[in-house]
Amino acid sequence: MLSVSEARERILAVFLPVEPQTVSLKRASRRVLSCDLSAETDLPPFDNSSVDGFALNAADFTCPRTLNVVADIRAGETSETPIQPGQSARIMTGAALPPGAEAVVMVEDTDFNVRTPGTPAPQTVTIHKSVRQGENIRHRGDDLHTGDKVLSAGTRLRAQEIGLLAMLGAVKLSVYRQPRMALLSSGDELLPVEAPLTPGKIHESNSYALAALAETAGVDIIQLGVAADNETDIRLRLQEAVEAKADVIVSSAGVSVGAFDYVKSVVEEDGELDFWKVNMRPGKPLAFGKYRGVPFFGLPGNPVSAFVGFEVFVRPALEKLSGLKLQPRPHQMARLAEPLESDGRESYLRAIVSQENGLLVARLTGHQGSGNIFSLVRANALLIVPSGVKSLTANSDVEIWPIA
Ligand code: AMP
Ligand code: MG
What we know:
19% of the residues lie in helices and 31% in strands. It is α/β, with parallel strands linked by helices. The strands form eight sheets. Strands 15-12-16-20-19-17 form a six-stranded mixed β-sheet, with helices on both faces. Helix 1 (4-12) packs across helix 6. The protein is elongated, with a radius of gyration of 31 Å.
């Protein structure tokens, strides 16, 4: 049987980034850049004051001194009046420094500590504090120089990158199109959440939970609904995914060895199945292949197995599809609080990780049945037991994946 890492490698080999498109900066949040970007301007673009105060000539850095105020410079304005020895200019935060000024003294350190908006500049000002060369000045290019590489292709744009791009005047950006993921559930026992429960039936939950996961991966979702356990209905819905130009299809259930597990057979008939079992726990029945050319994941039906299968296999595939630079999943090491038993399969167990005396300590959330979604809700991490390991003693170091 395939190991988790072999399966992941085979999956990732199938995916390539979707094509780029141009979007306006306003629509670029959370999108993935498709090319490197360099600064087209210095930041800040000109020398300016970092405080409200008075700009000084280098001859007047010591105090006390009384100076003639020869200019009044507001943010957004420039002044060509040079500041000579014995002179100063009132200057606001962010306003361009006038010629001849080499430091700014804060308004609080002068005799003109006036807070009322609109107060005109005084004729003279007395400085109470000596200043250093360059004090309270933000120099042109302090942050960035023209031509500096600022962002690389494959970066997801967070709020801070969006702010930087605005500062640089980047109105249009080249980003990867948002991938489309089609989502299918299957099973005759599944009722819509709106329907009251009847004997033998349960509420369908995977399409909700998997869509919520996919949203965190930044993809568009095409809901294919719930297929009945028959080939015709499954085929009809998978065909819908092809017509909607899905980049990937993710289905749950119907890929095990049950007498009515038709999903696997439909994919085999209309496409190709690469594998349908992975040596892991939970989630051994996990299919991967193509349905009419569209990459297809058949996750297990049990809600916890479907969740784990998504995190282990689907998320990295979506990341590659999205054009993101592939990086190992953020993980941490924690100390196991109690001994645990495993069955030799690579296991992803629900755990609660907490800080205790400066150490990360992990405890399982109890019974690990793959239908027990509440134990997944109580978990804040998946604890990974490597393949081949059948038991771990208390205090063992274990790898954990935080689950937000
Ligand atoms: P199966 O893979 O079809 O044998 O399903 C395995 C288990 O997962 C069964 O107990 C199903 O009832 C359950 N299951 C399958 N699909 C869903 C779903 N979409 N939502 C909640 N439970 C499901
Ligand atoms: Mg079923």
